[in-house]
Amino acid sequence: MELAVLNKEGKETGRKVTLSTELYAVEPNHHAIYLDVKQYLANQRQGTHKSKERGEISRTTKKFFRQKGTGNARVGSLRSPLQRGGGTAFGPRPRNYGFKLNKKVKAVARKSALTLKASDKKIQVIENLEMAAPKTKDFINIITALGLDAKKSIIVLGDSNKNVYLSSRNFKGSDVVIASELNTYSIMNAQNVVLTEDSLGKLENLLSK
């Protein structure tokens, strides 16, 4: 698949790039995408939820009422889950929701996600982004020129660029990541994927291993 390289004004530069068939034209593995997205979302969970059990409740140990003669059932402790203000039975405990996923499965998931975007013509290639200073207005102008101002998009850079990142931070409609940090969730969550020229080679090196 050949794509025209666009400049920051959204116009064609006259150059074209050929997307690798190993990354953008594979047989999509939907189950691998599901597993990778599931692991990403699981890792976002803090897992700090906690409720007090009967052994952690601070209440008097005095017997509630006498054992016999009242007609009521025997009450052993006010900390019991049956009592108002007592502990919680089988309540949540802190835990780690993360799980292991093989590197090859994650690579297949990212290739599948990129293939789906390419087949839907939702991938654009632009020349390398350079910004003299962090300025959100300039970043929004680039997004608008690419026709993505009303769409959720992700821009993939080859290397870290502080000015581009800071310029995009206040614009909620688009995310900026470097090629080594691109994940399946980000690809699938975005309506359009914008790749810089230098990110193409980085992605090929990362995903073709």
TrEMBL record:
<dbReference type="InterPro" id="IPR002136">
    <property type="entry name" value="Ribosomal_uL4"/>
</dbReference>
<keyword id="KW-0699">rRNA-binding</keyword>
<protein>
    <recommendedName>
        <fullName>Large ribosomal subunit protein uL4</fullName>
    </recommendedName>
</protein>
<dbReference type="Pfam" id="PF00573">
    <property type="entry name" value="Ribosomal_L4"/>
</dbReference>
<comment type="function">
    <text>Forms part of the polypeptide exit tunnel.</text>
</comment>
<dbReference type="InterPro" id="IPR023574">
    <property type="entry name" value="Ribosomal_uL4_dom_sf"/>
</dbReference>
<dbReference type="GO" id="GO:0005840">
    <property type="term" value="C:ribosome"/>
</dbReference>
<feature type="region of interest" description="Disordered">
    <location>
        <begin position="68"/>
        <end position="93"/>
    </location>
</feature>
<keyword id="KW-0694">RNA-binding</keyword>
<dbReference type="InterPro" id="IPR013005">
    <property type="entry name" value="Ribosomal_uL4-like"/>
</dbReference>
<comment type="function">
    <text>One of the primary rRNA binding proteins, this protein initially binds near the 5'-end of the 23S rRNA. It is important during the early stages of 50S assembly. It makes multiple contacts with different domains of the 23S rRNA in the assembled 50S subunit and ribosome.</text>
</comment>
<dbReference type="GO" id="GO:0019843">
    <property type="term" value="F:rRNA binding"/>
</dbReference>
<keyword id="KW-0689">Ribosomal protein</keyword>
<dbReference type="GO" id="GO:1990904">
    <property type="term" value="C:ribonucleoprotein complex"/>
</dbReference>
<dbReference type="GO" id="GO:0006412">
    <property type="term" value="P:translation"/>
</dbReference>
<comment type="subunit">
    <text>Part of the 50S ribosomal subunit.</text>
</comment>
<dbReference type="GO" id="GO:0003735">
    <property type="term" value="F:structural constituent of ribosome"/>
</dbReference>
<keyword id="KW-0687">Ribonucleoprotein</keyword>
<comment type="similarity">
    <text>Belongs to the universal ribosomal protein uL4 family.</text>
</comment>
